[in-house]
């Protein structure tokens, strides 16, 4: 199969999901053009590319659009083989997919509950988030993490590291806006260690800086 030539990522500077795709493409050293979408005034071109959900991110490869961040991340890994972000072993791959889905289906919705609540309701929602993060910590440690390594699969950055990096950005932002403590190193030491190590990677810092410029515009 010929190498894709025209690659565009439609996203938003404030979209954590789009940030994940930026990171995966940069990790794999894929050259691409970025189109920052005005979420309050979406163009007809963009809506044609994602007519079902009408959300970012959308990756367009040689004119063919792919929507939904988790779908895009797996497409990127299958298309560009260098620096794989999924294990080759089918069993380990299934475990990565399971915990990625757990983050998307359990942890991300819980952050919205926290944002939309106040007082005792918010306190209860935060406690429920701690429980979910604890479950994730235990599962990653038990099933995937290489003991003593910076990232989940040793020195190689993988799909879960990318997603956890995105979670760190969101949770840190929530801490600042709502005066909460959501990343507790005593409760989830492994996850905090992985997130902090990921945040120090050059391509992550470069992406965050680039997106911060768009956010200011």
TrEMBL record:
Pfam families reported in the protein's UniProt record: GST_N
InterPro entries: Glutathione-S-Trfase_C-like, Glutathione-S-Trfase_C_sf, Glutathione_S-Trfase, Glutathione_S-Trfase_N, GST_C_Tau, Omega/Tau-like, Thioredoxin-like_sf
Domain of life: Eukaryota
A Gene Ontology BP annotation from the UniProt entry: glutathione metabolic process
GO MF annotations, alphabetized: glutathione transferase activity
Tagged with keyword Cytoplasm: yes
EC number: 2.5.1.18
Gene3D superfamilies (UniProt xref): 1.20.1050.10, Glutaredoxin
Coiled-coil positions: none
Any one GO CC term of the record: cytosol
Domain GST C-terminal stretches: 89-217
Top EC group: transferase
Main localization of the protein described in the UniProt heading: cytoplasm
Compartments (UniProt record): Cytoplasm, Cytosol
Reactions that this protein is recorded to catalyse: RX + glutathione = an S-substituted glutathione + a halide anion + H(+)
PANTHER family xrefs: GLUTATHIONE S-TRANSFERASE U8, GLUTATHIONE S-TRANSFERASE, GST, SUPERFAMILY, GST DOMAIN CONTAINING
Family membership noted in the UniProt record: Belongs to the GST superfamily.
Name by which UniProt lists this protein: Glutathione S-transferase
Highest classification ranks of the organism: Eukaryota, Viridiplantae, Streptophyta, Embryophyta, Tracheophyta
